[in-house]
Here is the input.
Amino acid sequence: MGLIAQLLVNMLQIGAVYVLFALGLTLVFGVMKVINFAHGQFFTLAALMIAVTMPEFTERFGFPAWVDYFVCFALALLTVAILGVVLYFVGFERYLRDLIGSFILSVGLLLLLEGVYLWIFTGAPRVVPKLLTGQVSILGGALETQRLVICGIALAATFGLYQLVNRTKLGRALRAVAEDREAAMLQGIRYRRISFYGFMIGSGMAAIAGGLIAPLTAISPSLGNDYLSKAFIIIIIGGLGSIPGAILGGFLIAAVESFAGYFLDSSYATIAMFMLVMVFLLVRPQGILGHAER
Amino acid sequence: MIGEAVLELSGVSVSYGSVRAVSGIDLKVYRGRIATLIGSNGAGKTTILKGITGLKGLDAGRVRFGAEDLTNRPVDQIVAAGVSLVPEGRRLFPTMSVRENLEIGAYRRTDDAAVRADFDRVMEYFPALNERLNARAMTLSGGQQQMVAIGRALMSGPKLLLLDEPTIGLAPAIVQTIGKIVRTISESGVDVLLVEQNAHMALRLSEDAYVLENGAIVMRGFARDLEKSDAVRAAYLGM
Here is the structure.
């Protein structure tokens, strides 16, 4: 029982981070019709920023670790926002709805940013200090308190985005543009402005995911690559452009990773994921909740 | 003689790449008089509507709407000026509910009370939608989808309604319903430009008519006169 609880929380926690990351990617695709291969770089930058600034903060001010974490998290989000604005206006705005142009741009940015991060932060893996110590027991299984907190924040952020997209006027405009750009414009929706918002929200989701993964993993400039490939798997399984699909796919992949990783072996978990993708591409290429192109 | 022109196109030309789709279009819509633009598939009808609404830039010519010059203005400003298009193929947001599709038509409006009144009016025009409000748009029949599309356009509180082939593919009974509603909309003070392949219905419904062929207007006049003209009868009415 304790083991299952541990695996479940583990699944929820990685799953929520995957979902955040993949949601951002799918939102950007939906609104801009751009597959942003540099999406992982926002994720990486957020984690790196926290890893670099948090020890400095702790040394200088001596606040509890979780206070430092949230301050540095906010700083990291701000940094990513600035990078996002620059990349959007210098690059992506010119390649809206241009799959080939944006592919070349975003792959270039992926490589460029990884190089820049290596140059600034060096390649040595960094570790973020624990933000909370201690354990709690759930259903007989011992769990680190910080994992539980991070899991909670990730689920809350996912829920928040879901509400934003489904319940607000901005969310409705984002969905409208994703479903039919011209029809959305005919309702008076400013396509360019909405596509900028979509890009910033999507990139922000990646940054939040990066900030949440920071205390749980070793951080290097290539951290985002692994998550990017998993996000593609999630999107293929869930359905490209579908938000509920990304949520479902994210937790499904996390479950495979968590359970197959424990009962079999982590390399089998990876194989299982790719098998799943193959099955989906053969049987249901539009994904669980995607729509076939009309 | 027939009042002032609400919408006036003069010398409008639009191209796709190097291909000229329509050229030298002069067209007027008069206050309170339904105008129709008929023509066969590919004649350039939709292109003209895209030019008016700003979805497509003009190579030449001007679009005047009331006192405003709408030439090459951004779409959202043209919508704000009071021009609303019911696009060809309805173009609803398929996964959104009927209610959301209607509400998004009022996206730019802040006069909540008037928006609610317009919503009620749409329900009055199309009572069939009442029980489908929570259904996803893509689950509706073609006729109901067309009703939502017209309703959505009305939700922006337009002064001028542009309809692009609203009856295509619909059963005759629904065509009748749509025709009646278009007449009602016109009588309620919203001016109408109707673009149709269905010349029968369009000519009977409207006061003024234009015939478009290969991107140019080849005939214009009162709808009742065009209905009697031999050329129109042969080409568009199958007589």
About this structure: The interface with chain A takes residues 53, 55, 74-76, 79-80, 84-85, 87, 91-96, 100, 103-105, 107-108, 152, 156 of chain B (CB under 8 Å). The mean pLDDT of chain B is 95. The first strand of chain B starts at residue 5 and ends at 16. Residues 9 and 63 of chain B are 5 Å apart (CA to CA).
